[in-house]
Specification:
about 450 residues, alpha/beta, six-stranded parallel beta sheet, five-stranded mixed β-barrel, 14 helices
């Protein structure tokens, strides 16, 4: 008799790939994968446990499933992912409705875990985290025209605020051959936009080949004929090298989109974070990128309220945001994560102070975005069609300047029928806050 599995995957695109590998393995072994959890013999909640908000979201989803289990709507509950790896025994002891907890190193055993749980067993499984599968068949959960490809797992940077090294283990790259093979397979299945990800993409290959090989890998990915766009996320500032910029200059498919997590700009705070640089080195990097690639989109993430952040430190950050004029920016109030060096630092700030500073940065950035978007009016931007809104009789999509799920959209008119996943040219005619308005060329 076939067994039905529902999956709720939370958090980042790297976690999403882990979920896709598990789903493919389950489907291959006779399980029915359902988009709707109702009626599922077991529901897997693939959790994120990176910061406090992510943990709250995971717990809310587990409790929601616990209610459905009590009502007899679903069968068993299995918790996987980062929170399962990080909090282990605490999950089952505090939420007894959970039937199994599996750390990331046990993802490879997901078929056995589901069979045992549906068979009536309650247990925990914590394989060595370096056994987490980082390649293999996937059941894509993104739209069919784009996919993420994970080129490495883990992190060895040991930023003092971050629990990822504890959860995911040290940085380890996939072989170039396995990445290119998967990329070709994705392209042949209809993927047009390939999004290259890792915790620290710029370090790719350092552990396998003795030096970073991201530029070489990107060169080869751009040679896959049916790909339209190759996008890269999460390159640390010190890893944006001249060699890498040259790679962007020469490859038309490689989008001039730089997601560079900077986290702060004050030298004192960056040092406490175990990060490199200061305001001037970061501004110089931004100037270099824009001088070599004038249309480049630069995105960053920042943290406000790090332990010991004074008003002066914050003013340095605020001044930096004004001078840098980022095309995209995400800001987060510092989340104290147990077990990290930063959690033991003196000078922990009140939540209100951290959140207020975050709001100030985002208000500041909104004014920058308004200015940048106004400059887009009259430009023609390559766009991937994501859907049609019958209510407004407009299509919507993402320009090359926008990554899925984190950036804005463009709403545009078109006098003829086009399809989801088509690539079209759209002239920008106006602005609606973070989003653009246009018409097809």
């Amino acid at each position: 008799m076939s067994k039905t599995i529902g999956m709720i995957s939370l958090g980042c695109s790297k976690n999403q790939i882990d979920a896709e590998i598990m789903l493919a393995k389950l489907a291959e072994n006779g399980f029915i994968i359902s988009d709707d959890v109702d009626g599922a013999d077991a529901v897997i909640i693939n959790t994120c446990g990176f910061i406090e908000d992510a943990k709250k979201e995971a717990i809310e989803n587990i409790l929601d499933m616990a209610e459905l289990k009590k009502e007899g709507i679903i069968g068993k509950i299995i918790v996987t992912g980062c929170m399962a790896e990080r909090y282990r025994e605490q999950i089952m002891s505090e939420i007894p409705e959970v039937d199994a907890v599996a750390g990331i190193g046990s993802n490879k055993d997901i078929v056995d875990i589901c069979n045992r749980v549906i068979g009536g067993e309650n247990f925990e499984s914590y394989g060595d985290k370096i056994l987490l599968p980082i390649e293999g068949e996937r059941m894509l959960t993104t739209e069919p025209y784009f996919a993420y490809i994970k080129i490495a797992e883990g992190c060895s940077n040991n930023c003092t605020y971050c629990a990822i090294p504890q959860i995911r283990g040290p940085f380890r790259s996939r072989t170039e051959e396995s990445i290119l093979s998967e990329a070709r397979q994705l392209a042949s299945s209809g993927v047009k936009e390939l999004i290259v990800i890792a915790q620290d993409t710029g370090r790719y290959g350092e552990d396998l080949y003795g030096s970073p090989k991201l530029a070489e890998l990107l060169d080869k990915l751009c040679q896959i004929d049916s790909l339209e766009w190759v996008r890269v996320l999460y390159i640390y500032p010190e890893r944006v090298t001249d060699e890498l910029l040259a790679c962007f200059e020469k490859n038309e498919k490689l989008l001039d989109y730089f997601d560079i997590p900077m986290q702060h700009a004050d030298a004192e705070i960056l040092k406490k974070m175990n990060r490199k640089g200061d305001t001037e080195t970061l501004l110089e990097l931004i100037r270099k990128i824009r001088s070599r690639l004038p249309d480049a989109v630069i995105r960053t993430t920042l943290i406000t309220g790090f332990p010991g952040e004074t008003e002066e430190n914050f003013e340095t950050l605020s001044d930096f945001v004004g001078r840098a004029e980022f095309d995209r920016l995400g800001c987060f109030a510092y989340s104290m994560e147990e077990g990290t060096p930063a959690s033991r630092l003196p000078g922990q700030l009140d939540e209100e102070v951290k959140k207020h500073r975050c709001e100030v940065i985002m208000e500041q950035q909104f004014r920058v975005i308004e200015k940048i978007n106004e400059k887009m009016i009259g430009k023609v931007l390559r766009t991937v069609v994501e859907g049609y809104d019958a209510y407004t009789d407009t299509y919507y999509g993402r320009t090359w300047r926008d990554a899925p799920e984190i950036d804005g959209v463009i709403n545009f008119t078109c006098p003829f029928e086009i399809n989801e996943g088509d690539f079209v040219d759209v002239e920008v005619m106006g602005v609606n806050e973070y989003d653009l308005i246009g018409e097809i060329v």
